[in-house]
Amino acid sequence: MTRTLSRSADPQPAIGERLRARLDAQLAARGIDVGTPLPPNEPEPNPALEAAQKRIPYDYRTASAAHPDVTAWVRTIAGSATAPYADSLQPHYGVGGRRMVARGPSLLLWGATGTGKTHEAFGAIRSLTDAGCAVPWQATTAADLYGEMRSRHGADPEVLLRRIMRVPVLLLDDLGAAKNSEWTEEVTFRLLNWRAQNRFPTLITSNLPPVRTPGIPPGQPVLRDRVGDRVLSRLSGMCTAVELTGPDRRFQAR
Ligand SMILES: Nc1ncnc2c1ncn2[C@@H]1O[C@H](COP(=O)(O)OP(=O)(O)OP(=O)(O)O)[C@@H](O)[C@H]1O
Ligand SMILES: [Mg+2]
To answer: Considering every ligand atom, which ligand is closest to the CA of 177?
Structure first.
């Protein structure tokens, strides 16, 4: 037989009046006033997020991704993160540990200056860390990467490139903004080709539209002009291109 709750029936109070009076008296005797509002909830400390936070440039430390395509990317990457030590033969092995970011798609955030591309990218990295994923990440502008590789006093450029290729989540900021040459094209190609072939999630930002479309004035450069056909082909294979629009937020902030 199915029992249904009558809508008119009042639910029983959790405790009766006499019991409540006795409890209140006992609490009052201990100096506890049940009428006092509870202090506001403090957020739980998240050591991984705090550690990640220190490496994020000051301007982006509170960034949160808001663009629907960026939040969808975060969900995809967080959803495919795997338990440490798990593999296809033992998928549940080690499920108690923090999930590691695995392979996945990449994003190309493009748009005019100040529209929030770098903000969205750091917001995405923060969200991944906050979602409980272990996210070894690195962020560099393309210009800084070329500069570091050219430096005579730094590490071996080949070692540097191979290291950055293998970073699980990479933010390559401002692609196409640096002066291009055959050498920069080769570095960018090797970096993105390896990451595309191995499906390592990469966030790329650029001020330039990826390719020339009918509305673009002939004198305005596009990303393809700056990075070359081979890099653009890798980008289109690995990335969802997301255009960020709107005014320059730096002017708005003033
Ligand atoms: N959603 C947002 N909420 C609050 N501040 C934001 C937001 N998006 C961007 N900003 C702020 O606006 C400024 C410009 O954003 P950001 O640096 O991300 O732009 P950008 O598109 O990367 O610009 P550029 O092409 O010059 O690199 C920054 O100071 C950033 O902190
Ligand atoms: Mg930027």
So the answer is: 1
Task: Take residue 131 and report the two structure tokens written for it.
Answer: 């979602």
Ligand 1 centroid to Cα of residue 248, in Å, is 8
How do residues 193-234 score in pLDDT, each as one tens digit? 999 999 999 999 999 999 999 989 988 999 999 999 999 999
Write down the pLDDT at residue 6: 47
Does the domain at residues 48-253 carry the CATH identifier 3.40.50.300?
yes
| d(C-alpha 112, C-alpha 107), whole Å | 16
- Hey, where are the domains in the chain? 48-253
**Tens digit of each residue's pLDDT (9 = 90 or more) over 133-144:** 778 899 999 999
Nearest to 204 by CA among 92, 118, 116: 118
Cα distance between the two ends of the chain: 69
Of 71 and 89, which is predicted with more confidence? 71
Atom 27 in ligand 1: which residue has the minimum CA distance?
A: 113
From the CA atom positions of the chain, what is the Rg in Å? 26
- In the Cβ-directed half-sphere of 136, how many Cα atoms lie within 13 Å? 10
* Dihedral of the alpha carbons of 181, 196, 54, 161, in degrees to the nearest 10: -50
Higher pLDDT: 102 or 174? It is 174
